[in-house]
Design a protein that fits this description.
A seven-stranded mixed sheet has the order 2-3-1-4-5-6-7, with helices on both faces. Helix content is about 35%, strand content about 25%. The chain is globular and about 40 Å long. The chain is an alpha/beta fold and about 180 residues long.
């Protein structure tokens, strides 16, 4: 098993955190991982992205030009990464940030209304965990148990009380993702 993933959206949406938690989840399950963030002045308001590779075998290079999975949370990210998905790949998007939906028919496309659901849960900070839950439903790269262990590892101890809420958000994401 090897999945090459790009997660992209506006700075502040939790894109880099989602990638970090996914990478740590892989580590918790003794998988090989890479985590390569890309951001700069665009971190707050512009587009930020992170490449994550999770594999059962050694990873030869963290540099990718094509992806198995793309999670896009805004229109510029969709425009940039939809063409870079491998045929048969998976594209997940939150319709809140997308004006022109994906057009390719050689990939599986999923929509997740994570922004609306986070607002309904009255906590915008769980947005990225809802999206991560959707990813784990359609592509079981890591287990929920691995994610929970990763949250304990990556979150400061003062935020450990929020882990149950994050795990609830992951379960919610698994429930609301839908194939287009």
């Amino acid at each position: 098993m090897k999945k090459e993933i790009i997660i992209s959206g506006f700075g502040g949406q939790g894109v880099l955190s989602m990638g970090k938690i996914l990478a740590y989840s892989g580590l918790m399950e003794d998988k090989e991982v890479t985590w390569m963030p890309a951001y700069g002045p665009e971190q707050r308001g512009g587009t930020a992205n992170v490449t994550v590779i999770v594999s059962d075998e050694r990873i030869s290079s963290p540099i990718l030009s094509r992806y198995d999975v793309a999670i896009v949370l805004n229109q510029p990210s969709l425009d940039k990464f939809e063409p870079k998905l491998k045929p048969g790949g998976i594209l997940i998007y939150d319709s809140y940030g997308i004006i022109n939906p994906p057009k390719r028919n050689d990939i599986k496309v999923y929509s997740i209304d994570a922004m609306d659901k986070a607002a309904e849960m009255k906590n915008s900070k769980v947005f990225n965990m809802i999206v991560l839950g959707g990813l784990l439903k359609v592509c079981s790269i890591v287990s929920e148990n691995g994610v929970e262990k990763a949250l304990y590892k990556t979150l400061p101890e003062r935020h450990h009380s929020l882990i149950p809420l994050n795990m609830e958000a992951i379960k919610t994401g698994k429930e609301i993702i839908k194939e287009m």
